[in-house]
Records
---
Amino acid sequence: MHLVAINIPDLFISLWRSTIQCDPNDSRSTWRFMVLTKDTWEAHGKAVAATTPYLPGSFDRAPRNIADKLTSGYKAWEHLIHLYCLCPALLYNVLPEVFYRNLCKLVRGVRLLYQCNISHADIMEASALFIMFEKDYELIYYERKTARLHFVWQSIHSVTHIPTETERLGPEIIFSQWPMERLLGELGLQIRNHSNAYANMAEIAVRRCRTNAIHAMIPALTEPQSLPRGAIDLGGGYALLRRSEDKATPITDAEKCVIVPYLESMGVAMSAYWTSNPTISRWAHVILPNKQVVRSLWREADTPVEKLRIACNVKIYDNGVYMIAEVQYFFQAPHPHRNSGLALMSTYSDPDQDLLNYSENTLYSCKYQGARNLKVVNVTSIQAVVAMIPHPAPYGPHGRNLEGNFFLAEKLGLDLLQFTHTDEITADE
């Protein structure tokens, strides 16, 4: 937690802002990495703050304007999202190529190892990336100069040990301080004897362990989590959640062109009148097995963007292909397929392959296609809620102008939600 979420961000920000100490035998005028200064730093802070409406609520705390709040208790989680989710896009035009690609190697490695299900290939790729990152860092920042020896923090070398520790202990997100601090917080809330708080907390922890052991030995004692009133269980951890329409409403011609053929492929019997004049009862939300709640554009469209935490963009796996799409709305297939939850989606374009290669597979930038590329999928094809964030106007001299495109941000350690039983189910709307 402290290594990747506090120490490394602190080092890079102090380098890019040139707030790190300069040796008398060195000169800041030779620091090619000194890019976040004055107006550029202010523009970067505003760009970070502008991403907040596009980060779903399941991403927890969105990073604040880092230019204004860096010294005002900027949280480890804010640093994590800022550096590893946002910086590959926000610094694309700012950092010179050699420094940008060095950062992307670090980001790619951390993203791989912050998964809960990590393959051996992922560990090997992360290990190779971290080794290249460390070597390049010493060449381009430190430059083997004694006057810059203080640039080489222990954390730069420490990241190269994360892959081997992952093989030995398991995924980083499980044994790091994130779950430990979460548990300490929950135990602290249960303290009732404040005159002997630590002994009281220890007793509460022992009681929790005994309870967990009993539930592990006798699973039948664990009561299943109930769904909100009006929800429809689709099986496999998926469920339709209200709000929903009481009466079926007509759909547009563009929607008709994809919904009717999809229902025909399912073998749904449809009257000639319904095929010519289809109507659908729309649903607003779906809960996923990872406890994220997908919201639909139908539900979010009437709310000003600055008041939202947009959660209608999803990663889907359909016919052996991963895609990013925006959910227009959910609906149920007609009888006898009522237990099939369906989603009308607008898929984003394929990512810019040149950018993916340039950024070590960290900058997934694509175009929004709206009603031009609609698609119907089964709700069970949805893997996770993601953020699709508009590229800001360039505030640096490098790279291409990507304004008008959207870049992908996925929550690090998403599966942690499953372990803590945290979800986004809210009261009926």
---
Amino acid sequence: RGEVWTSSGQYCIPGITRGAVIRLCRENGIPVFEKQFSLYDVYGADEAFVTGTFAGLLPVREIDGRVVAHPLKPKGDWTGIGPMTARLTGLYGTLARREAKRAL
């Protein structure tokens, strides 16, 4: 619903990519909350994604067999990419390209 939730650390590794996504949210006016939440909260999410060094942002299609689908996505679109995930993927891609150029 226009915000990003991430675990405060008990259920995830505080990795570099996760940190970069949190920073991108803050820099781009996207509310981001580091907090504890239940699996039932996750079931009610409009979107879900995981982060990792090689994958960047990877949309989650299902959680425990339950399809994660944004209500604004066209029916039959099971890619798992909703508007927030798409926006953050774009922001992260821009950051990664900028950092790669800087490293050359």
---
Amino acid sequence: MTSDSSETGKTLFKDLNLDQRLLDAITDIGFEHCTPIQAETLPFTLVCQDLIGQAQTGTGKTAAFLITAIQSLLETPIPEKDRFASEPRVLALAPTRELAMQIAKDAEQLCGYTGHNVVTVVGGMNYDKQRDQLQNEIVDILVATPGRLIDFLGSQDVFLDQLDILILDEADRMLDMGFIPDVKRIIRKCTPKEDRQTLLFSATFNQDVLNLASMWTRNAEFVEIEPEQKTAERVEQTVYLVGEDEKLPVLVNYLKRPDVEKAIVFANRRDQCRDLDEDLRNQGVKVALMSGEIAQNKRLKTLDQFKKGSIQVLVATDVAGRGIHVNGVTHVFNYNLPENAEDYVHRIGRTGRAGKTGVSVSFASEDDAFSLPAIETYISQKLKTTVPDEELMAPMSNAPITRKRGGRRPQGSRGQGGRSQGGRPQRQRRN
């Protein structure tokens, strides 16, 4: 969650007529003033207006939709005798496990004094435990990724026809990752849009996303928070013009600089990330890999080590990188320039957060320099390009790993877990 209390003249949370229990949790977290996305959206969402919001990661949109949901739950309590397990009142859909886990963590903090139950269902974690929670607990807020939620809908372990609020976060990423057919199936199981509040957030809006937003919302208010020059003003951006074989030594030598406290290195493909992880480890760097092929429990442990400083560098794919929400990242490295200019913005948005400055270093070789003009056009600025100095070009301590390229490595299959055959009697929507 992100909020900014560094400036006066901003909307104060205490002026929004929030329930005192929710306000106490907001105060405990350290929030006082709303961020722009919160100030623009909450006046609409707190009066049950559907909303379509355009905002980048790190703007405070998560707190905006969670505060809306929790305030609604507090204003419209339902006696426990009228509630059933497996029937959430709020559903937040996110494209990645990491983002869903972060949303759930933020929700639990904001529910610190309200007693509401937050349940998370995501792939890569214990299926039976998640099913038991759905079957046996009164669920107020359900945070889910599409694939795992489809599993539980199919086995009738969760029902969405009593839903009051539907939240769709990072809709553009769900579209990019091919989740929209699953999301459509999920929404068909939800309360009709006339009887629910729908909040949809996306970093970008192409025509496909706009069409989906129109389909799923009703008389929605559109709020757009433009990123500062599409990239953070607090991030110093440099592009090094290098040969492909010069990237690794320049990266290794740069990581030795004392100002590089926490760094994320992005590459375009999983195999490149695997190789980079091995190469940096071979050079004595405290590094860990973040990609979709890493088990979820290991990724969570890695993130915790990164936050605590026992790991200096994360090597990440774009999808995994979107789930990294860690303050204090001093440097972001683009080992390859991304093919999609929007991904450049998301990558460097991992640094320069919470009022701090950050550094973005990109490597452009003849293999990927063609992406540079599109990135500069997208962010509306010319990036500083230079060649590495002698210090950065110095030989590495250890000889680089020599690899023989063969066929593709086998990919792991998605675990299915058990399924229950249970269900519930047909119920009518609450009036």
---
Amino acid sequence: YEGASMSELTAAMGINSPSLYAAFGSKEALFLEATDFYSHTEGADIWLALEEAPTARQAIEQFLCLTAR
């Protein structure tokens, strides 16, 4: 997050910075939106496994197994 500038992000996405600012307002807002999207899509099964694990150890094991795939 800290290592990526807005100009690097817009170049990687192939868009102009006004478009990014109009859509998200700031780099922080973009980051929050991206992490929220991930946690509700690709990461949903990971969060569910963490919530359902009976112990902290099992939660960590599930997290590591699911993120390593």
